[in-house]
Automatic annotation (TrEMBL):
Stored Gene3D superfamilies: Chloramphenicol acetyltransferase-like domain
The name this protein goes by in its record: Spermidine hydroxycinnamoyl transferase
Annotated region described as Disordered, given as residue ranges: 1-32
Family label: Belongs to the plant acyltransferase family.
InterPro entries: CAT-like_dom_sf, Plant_Fungal_Acyltransferase
Organism: Arachis hypogaea (Peanut)
Pfam family, one: Transferase
GO molecular function: acyltransferase activity, transferring groups other than amino-acyl groups
């Protein structure tokens, strides 16, 4: 439209959010939804306030196509059990490596519990699927089973990848509908909303995905470099805000050569250690 072109009816943005409304009559969630409950704490801590207060920083890393393939090969080297028979994906392999690197950089106890958090695009997970032109975020939160840091850092990369896969494969139509019901029944939405505010207040009951836990979101399926608003090809795609907890976001490089950008949000105290361990090229530091 910005180029003065017209859209077919099937291309017009679909805005009807009734497709994602809770069931009526409203019923209790069918699943436990551990992803919406307090996550593991630093051993010896009683809440996350101190971790929330620690300064976070942003930096951008880049994996070459060769590094991506090596991580996939490492993750698939042993048969630590992908039950579906499908080899681990680049998201699972990169996510596993980032999670392991975060655990090492923080120098946590080997007995420290940790989980991996991510979000899953639910457009094709629902039954029936959302219209292809559905406009806006359509995501479900999920976490891995609880692991010990010692296992994440010492076992093969496939161990972390397997736990990430379990988190993703949990998301199906029934789980999504139950999560929507959970939100509808939740009387303290501010507890869930607070962590996503750039300068949110510190709350003992707020969800906190940071240390000792770690999260990764994939933007690799977003075809952002195909966008042309009438001014030519997009030359830069990035983030506009700093997350208040440790997190990585994966995106395709504008070079379109198979390389991947990682937008990292991490505790400043552990940043240099993380960069040394992860062994990706540093594109920028803030």
């Amino acid at each position: 439209m910005t180029r003065g072109e017209t859209l077919e009816a099937s291309e017009l943005p679909f805005h009807d959010q009734k497709l994602l409304k809770p069931r009526r009559p409203l019923s209790s969630p069918r699943f436990d939804h551990a992803e919406m409950k307090p996550l593991p704490l630093i051993l010896g801590s009683t809440n996350t306030i101190e971790e929330q207060k620690k300064k976070k920083t942003f930096f951008q890393l880049k994996l070459t196509a060769e590094q991506v393939q090596k991580l996939k090969k490492d993750a698939n080297n042993d048969n630590n059990g992908f039950q579906s028979g499908e080899p681990y994906s680049r998201f699972e392999a990169i996510g596993a490596h980032l999670w392991r690197s975060a655990c090492k950089a923080r120098e946590l106890s080997k007995d420290q519990p940790t989980v991996f958090q991510t979000v899953v695009d639910i457009r094709r997970k629902l039954n029936p699927p959302l219209p292809q032109n559905y406009f806006g975020n359509a995501l479900a939160f999920t976490i891995s089973p609880m692991c010990c840091v010692g296992d994440i850092v010492s076992k093969p990369l496939s161990y972390a990848a397997k736990n990430i896969r379990e988190a993703v494969e949990r998301i199906n139509d029934e789980y999504i509908r139950s999560q929507i019901d959970f939100f509808a029944c939740e009387k303290r939405m501010d507890r869930i909303r607070t962590p996503f505010l750039e300068k949110g207040e510190y709350r003992e009951d707020a969800l906190f995905y940071g240390n000792p836990n770690f999260g990764v979101t994939s933007w690799m399926s977003m075809t952002v470099y195909e966008a042309d608003f009438g001014w030519g090809r997009l030359v830069h795609f990035g983030q506009g805000a700093l997350f208040p907890f440790d997190r990585g976001l994966l995106a395709l490089s504008p070079d379109m050569d198979g390389s991947i950008l990682v937008f990292m949000h991490f505790q400043e105290a552990h940043m240099q250690n993380f960069i040394k361990i992860v062994q990706f090229s540093v594109v920028s530091l803030i």
